[in-house]
Here is the input.
Amino acid sequence: MKQSNTNLKTARRFPFTEEEMADAFERLLKNGKTLPGVGRLSRVFREVDCHRGRPDFIALARGTTRFLTGKSITLKFAGSLLMSFLHEKSPRSVTYLREHSGISIRTIKLAMLELVERKYVIDAGGNSYLLNPARPLRQVHVLAFELKLDKPKRAVFQAQQYRSFAQSVLIVAPPSQLPLYKKFGVAMRRWGIGIATFDPRTDEFKIHRSPRIGTPHSRHHQAYALFQLLSGAAG
Amino acid sequence: MLLAQAGYGRGNKIHTALDEALVGGVILSPKDERRERLEECVADLNTNYADAWVMVDPQFYATTVSVPRDGRLPEYDYYADHAPLSRTQFSPRQIAGYVRACLDYQHGLTGLRYILSPSVLFDDFRDSWSQIALNMAEASLDHHAELTEAAPLLVTIVTSEIALRNATGMGEFLDALSGLDVDGFYLLVNRSSSGYLAAMDTRAMENLMYFVHVLAHLNDYEVVVGYSDWFGFLLHAAGAAATATGWHQSLRQFSMSRFEPAAGGGRRPRKRYSSAPLLSNPLIVPELDDIYRTGMLNNVLSGGSNDPILDGGPAAGEARWTDEMGCLAHWAAVGNLIATIESAPRPAAKLNAAIQLIDGATTLYDRLLRRGVNFEPQTGPDHLVAWRDSLNAFRHTAGV
Here is the structure.
């Protein structure tokens, strides 16, 4: 859900605005009850920029929030990119990181200093680094929600982007829009994107296809998104 | 021939591209280079890549922007001594001064393939700015004739997509240009959109091809078109000797917005892959990744040396796909298209080769769309329709 002039046009076709729908959906996500087809959630964030788009909501599955006890970093883009090259047992040198990431030595050293200080990375000596196994990214289960009054093509495109950092992605649309998503069924199955309908007037939430849970496609963007959540930019 | 259109963050890209024969030369950008660094670069290229076409776009057109975002340009005397300039500051005597300073500076750089004349932007072939541009062209010719052992001169023409819609005005302007005793032209087209769009207005593109055709084929000038990116192959089919493209989107299409005050820092661009078979740059995620999931990745890869990074899944390989790799892959893809056109013997055969490339890309897009691959408008197949329409209209007009 993004605020735009299109809201004025769509308001004529829908008895509620996208913002009203998002507000109602936020209440539903935060009421502490199990969401059908999704499960129980512990933390909910609204409109966080994850570099791969800005989902209307990001939620963390119950029991997977330990990562969020840490602190964020300032060099988020470089830090998360560098983390994506690191492993828990096989150290990677600064030279290796420079060759494969395209980041300058200076930035690598600055980012590593911060990542080591925040305990995301371990200095293995000899200018090489390891991921800290005590703070595994895989422990977090991120769910991304894309709310759309209309424009199903755009919704699917954005949902595909969210798979870079989220284990599950769900598109939420008004009930009247459901038939329009048939056309995108093949692509949505390919990407494991779920579809649900939500009516903010009745608070009726109905899952039509559950999102398929899978590893995020990009470790870089997974780390970036989590640092964004940690930074307090989220609601 | 493909040239590298240089900008901010040159690094080693140009040297690597010349080593790998991905580009035939470079058009350097004073706006983005400290003066000493640019001069060192010219000297180095002259020493190590003697056959490369090295040119410096003086970017004098930035002088007419009232509050310009001109970067390093004030470090160059030919610019600093004059900018900013209003319309009233282009008397014949003043023009002669601007031209002298600009040409003398380039003449002092050893190893330039061509000297590029200073010019100004015009949005109409019949307005006063177009007349100023013609006056600057003539003054450049006069001063160039006085230089001893100077590199040949290309007259810079900076027009716009809007101006190119007017075929009648363009014809009159071409009559004036074709009377100039010069080696050739360096052509820039200010795009109507500051955001990247692969295709320009259909009529403007048709007329741009005709513009190049008249100068190159009918009048035997060397025509170099800057910032032409993917549609460079269409301009080669129309007769261009060289086209250029760079690494950022802002170096792939010319817009005066590059010289105007910016609202603030932009966000880091999403990574793209330059697909020669599609004649476009799909996003690595989700577009190229979706193509991979349909099992058709090999159909859209350009065959570059770094493609194996994406073979195992574009999303997984994206982190290793560095900006430099993306830039080199782009030059390789665009350069291969140009080589395909250049290998055709006659103008008609070049146009046929261009149509084949467009048709091949259209068929491939159709197959991907049937499999449910979701493209954003910027990377969808719309530009192919526009290019084909322009090419057919040009063919009809030029009688090729």
User: Anything to note?
Assistant: The interface with chain B takes residues 51-52, 77, 81, 84-85, 100-102, 153, 156-157, 160-161, 163-164, 184-187, 190-191, 217-220 of chain A (CB under 8 Å). The beta strands of chain A are 41-46, 57-61, 92-93, 121-125, 128-131, 142-147, 168-173, 194-199, 204-209. Helices of chain A lie at 6-13, 18-29, 76-83, 94-101, 105-117, 152-162, 185-191, 219-230.
